[in-house]
Prior knowledge:
The protein is of the alpha+beta class. It has helices at 3-24, 43-56, 65-88, 91-114, 122-132, 139-147, 201-206, 232-241, 243-265, 271-277, 289-299, 303-325; strands at 150-155, 160-162, 172-178, 181-185, 188-193, 218-221, 225-231.
Amino acid sequence: MNYTESSSLTESTAIGFTPELESIMPVPSNETTCENWREIHHLVFHVANICFAVGLVIPTTLHLHMIFLRGMLTLGCTLYIVWATLYRCALDIMIWNSVFLGVNILHLSYLLYKKRPVKIEKELSGIYRRLFEPLRVPPDLFRRLTGQFCMIQTLKKGQTYAAEDKTSVDDRLSILLKGKMKVSYRGHFLHNIYPCAFIDSPEFRSTQMHKGEKFQVTIIADDNCRFLCWSRERLTYFLESEPFLYEIFRYLIGKDITNKLYSLNDPTLNDKKAKKLEHQLSLCTQISMLEMRNSIASSSDSDEGLHQFLRGTSSMSSLRLFSGWT
């Protein structure tokens, strides 16, 4: 066979197979529009996409928006799996959406676990609602605060919580839960302590600067009392690891010291009046109860010196209030 015959045979073979190749291999087209649209997918496919769209447009200002988002994504992935398995018979679509479904279920479970209702002991619910809940302290954080290194203690009427010049201020910090306590200096009544108030907030503030001090007042249970007591050292370490709670304690202790200043100037101040004053307090919380007690001690040991000091502090507070209101 010469070259001419082989070339003609090749041409005839190519010409003969061209229609078959054209039917097998796609021929590129210059047209950019689809001539034949496929039929619309099953309703399950569209409902799945609607779930995705609803989940993505949920506003972030909604309180539970992350839970709703993960819930809609979980529902959408489930419908996609149903569509791919029953109507499309696409194994790859089913596998990928199964993976997405597992991820969303895990995340949704975690979010629901964080939002679970945290049970607070009935005896502690009062101080949580009164002191911590208005400052947006989460219940789980409050439970951590009150569940690890503190205890509830009891004092019978007439028993002493602290004795002046004897009891160390470095040991504990307490909040009164029930009953009433009386604070006195060298036998002179200063003020009462009512439930949901710190017992030794001035001493806690003073020990942040000086260690090894003693109580300068005597605190006695005027009724049968129960109080929540923290170990001061362990509480300090815990607050260092929780900056948000540390700022909350600074505010609450400063506010409590201010309440004690008011009650010192007005010994008739009771619990109901103290609640009303909480919204009107404007005194500077930098005034230390320790400085006040030192002033009492240095002024005079007599009744006359004590009364002069009380009159002086009362007039100073009145001037501050008057200047603040004007």
